[in-house]
Amino acid sequence: MERLRRREEAETGRRKQLLDAAKVQRRRDILAAEKEADMARMTAARQVQRAHSRAMEQAVAVQTMISQQKALADAEAARLQQTARSMRVMLSPAYLHLRQAECSMARTQVYLGTGIPRAMVIEDAGPQGVGRGVRKSDQESLSRG
Question: What is the pTM (predicted TM-score) of this model?
Answer without folding.
Answer: 0.43
